[in-house]
Amino acid sequence: MFLFRLIKRIVKAILWLIVIVILIPIAGLAYGFLTTPALDRTPLPGIADGAPPKALADKVRAEIPGYQRPEESTFLTYPEWAIVYAAREYAGFVAKDQPSGFPYWSYVGRFWQDYATVIRASSPYRFNYANHQMLVIIGTSHSIEHILQWAYENTVGRITEATSAKRTAADIYQAKMAAEYASFLDQVPWYQFPYAEKRAGLFAVQPAPDDSSVRTSERKLAFGLADTIKQGYADLITKALAATSDPAFLDVHVWARGPVGEATRNEPDTLLERDYGADGTVFVTRRYQVFTDMIPRLIDKGVSFVEIGGNDEIMVTVLSTDTIAIPEGMRILFSYPLPADPSTRRTGMVVAVRKLHLVLPSLIKAGARLEHVYDY
Q1: Which end of the chain is more exposed for a tag (fewer CB within 10 A), N or C?
Q2: In this predicted model, what pLDDT tens digit does every residue of 67-77 receive, in sequence order?
Q3: Residue 160 resides in a domain
Q4: What is the rounded distance in angstroms from the CA atom of residue 355 to the CA atom of residue 299?
Q5: Mean pLDDT calculated for residue range 265-293
Q6: Per-residue confidence at 50, pLDDT binned at 50, 70, 90?
């Protein structure tokens, strides 16, 4: 009888857990749609300026495999990066403060607001089931992780904080690891991070003479367990992706005009593919942060863009201390202060690719800093 009741309780607990997991994205998206405005649907100025001849554009798409990327992905890529930014902003926060003070709930809400915004932005395109499925999964995982960390840091974490007059060596190690993790995510998926190696480094940390032994032991136990769980989860994800998924597109094709050959000569992992004379040059390069960092360098050397990933619209985010002016060739999607650093504002916009060489310098001149160009 006891065994039957135990099994019944376990099954009931599992069912409740499943219900909660299912409700997270439902509640999250409801919150996101209710707390974000409808988007401006004004036609993007400058979108047709400098368009290539249709016959040549068709030829490029036919002859270069992988040239055309789905344009809606420029929007649907953003929530993935929002998680990267959350990690980056967490690292910046714990570099000087205790993790119990981090605004975990704000970052949970922010993810679902960002997701609701890009759903609106991508609605004119076909529904990309694979992208949305992935975003629901990672958004749910992101929410659970932040909620659990908030609950732990504001109970056990605050108790052990009170036993120490300062940050311990273990706290400092975890802050450095958070910074490494945030930098790692700029170019590599989270599940390739060496959690087991970092756990070993944490366990090897020697406390300073006046460190709290209670705080040190709690940090090692808590984060060691977290790293163990993450390493196991990462291993499962790696195996599942190897068995069921095609490799991710790590390159992007760029059609540009100007001194493209000279400008890209010293750019790593960049290869010229087609030279169309006055109509421009197509080159291929690495995606993600590498490409974002390259764009201002190319613009400074006189390069302008015809298409990126086969598309004429692209999403961009910038960081600034004030609200930014809107130069021609772009349209604002959102603008908000960072939860962990309200003095800094993130602004997301959709930009006409053929105006990118004018829009970005104008934004930078106005005091903004380019954060990312979302390369599909």
Answers
A1: N
A2: 999 999 999 99
A3: yes
A4: 11
A5: 94
A6: confident
Closest C-alpha to 80, from 323, 337, 324, 315: 315
Distance CA 158, CA 36 (A): 33
Does residue 108 belong to any structural domain of this protein? yes
Look at residue 90 and tell me if it is in a domain.
Answer: yes
In this structure, which amino acid lies at residue 340? A
Q: How many domains does the chain have?
A: 1
Which pair of tokens denotes residue 29? 């998206």
Characterize the bridge pairing of strands 304-308 and 251-257.
antiparallel
